[in-house]
Design goal:
The protein has about 220 residues and is an alpha/beta fold. The protein has helices at about 50-60, 85-95, 100-125, 130-150, 155-170, 195-215, and strands at about 5, 10-15, 20-25, 30-35, 40-45, 50, 65, 75. Helix 3 packs antiparallel against helix 4 (about 130-150) and helix 4 packs antiparallel against helix 5 (about 155-170).
Length: about 220
């Protein structure tokens, strides 16, 4: 079964040993990764690949993703045979057509707002702060109405931002574990555990989307 491996140890080095990738920290071997079971490799922070390891991941067509220590996407190593070229051409063609670009942007923002709003409504039904969540849901519904009348990409972006602001105003009320508090979104770098987890989650999601696009 193919799987994704995450290497997060600072100063780790991946070396090739036959068909295996060995993870070293200093002179100590910490892990062994059989490439026959590996679909994707995610390297976070100061993690290095030896030239032999680079050859192996390219040879085995293992998607190799580089993230910063704070979880920000930096890039990926892609070998020959990628089908992403035709996809990129289609994306650029859509971007050159303002009407098509706006249609796609509205569809993305609409789906995001609807999903966030549905999540808040479900939380309200389960007994969370229904009044505050209800106000946020009303604001997001009005934003959806405004989105349908958006005639520029900036207007669509503004709707996305307004809905996100309404959502994050009540996000802290959804946190259950003790010790976790949310006073607003911050990033680059995130300043608290909740924002750190949100940023990492967004990065992993973006990576999953990018990975999926590469095989369309």
């Amino acid at each position: 079964m193919s799987r994704t491996a995450y290497v997060v140890q600072k100063g780790a080095t991946l070396r090739r040993e036959g068909e295996l990738l060995h993870v070293y920290v200093g002179r100590k071997r910490e892990a062994e990764l059989p490439t026959s079971e590996l679909r994707q490799l995610v390297l976070m922070g100061n993690v290095m690949l030896t030239p032999g390891a680079v050859d192996l991941v390219l040879e085995k067509k293992i998607d190799t993703v580089f993230l910063s220590w704070h979880g920000r996407y930096r890039g990926r190593l892609v070998g020959l045979g990628s089908s992403a070229v035709t996809l990129r051409v289609a994306q650029y063609e859509a971007l050159r057509d303002p009407a098509r670009a706006l249609q796609i942007a509205r569809a993305i923002v609409r789906s995001k707002i609807r999903n966030q709003r549905a999540f808040l409504l479900r939380q309200a039904r389960e007994g969370r702060d229904g009044e505050a969540l209800g106000r946020a849901c009303t604001a997001m519904r009005l934003t959806l109405v405004r989105l349908e009348g958006a005639v520029t990409l900036d207007e669509a972006r503004g709707c996305e931002g307004a809905a996100a602001a309404a959502y994050f105003r009540v996000f802290g009320k959804l946190l259950v574990p003790d010790g976790f508090h949310f006073d607003g979104r911050n990033r680059r770098p995130p300043m608290d555990p909740v924002n750190a987890l949100l940023s990492l989650g967004y990065t992993l999601l973006a990576n999953a989307v990018e990975d999926r696009k590469s095989v369309v």
